[in-house]
Amino acid sequence: MYSLFFQNLNSKVQLTEEEQEQIKTYLTLKKLRKKQYLLQEGDVCKMIAFVEKGALRAYSVDENSNEHIIQFGLEGWTISDLYSFLTGEPATYNIDAIEDSELVIISKSAHEELLQTMPKYETFTRLNITGAYLAMQRRLTSIISSSVEERYQEFIALYPHIAQRVPQHMIASYMGLTPETLSRIRKRISSK
């Protein structure tokens, strides 16, 4: 069950068998059924989830009950409300399963202890946070400088596996569009 987690970790920092076994003692496994919550807005996020199998999404809901997806999490990715996790403030996002999912969970206390006791874990965490920041910066730059068609084509190029597994209305939400607008964009692109 930890194979993808350790494959991902070892791709960034090489661990010995002993170090892997040590980290395993800090991890828990969790299964979510489709539509089951990992986190609800208003609760304090006390874990980071690594997706071994399945797909999740992080999103907020506005006053008109419209969902705004800010992140997907598929196999090999982590998902959390990082602001809530780091500050202890209530979460602003919901996280739920798009598909039946299997997760590797690291609690806040386990995360803090590993940061203090295992330099390789600290390096892994720094690299993950840096990667997440770069992805967020790329997304913001795209939002302010690219047309909607260009943004959709970039999304499909960067994340073809998401486009094949996630319903179109969720992709529209992630892009800040209505499903009808996304449908028109897809039609324009395919007719070129």
From TrEMBL:
InterPro entries: cNMP-bd_dom, cNMP-bd_dom_sf, RmlC-like_jellyroll. Residues 5-115 form the Cyclic nucleotide-binding domain. Coiled coil: none annotated. PROSITE patterns: CNMP_BINDING_3. It holds the Pfam family cNMP_binding. It comes from the Bacteria. This is cAMP-binding protein. It comes from Pontibacter amylolyticus.
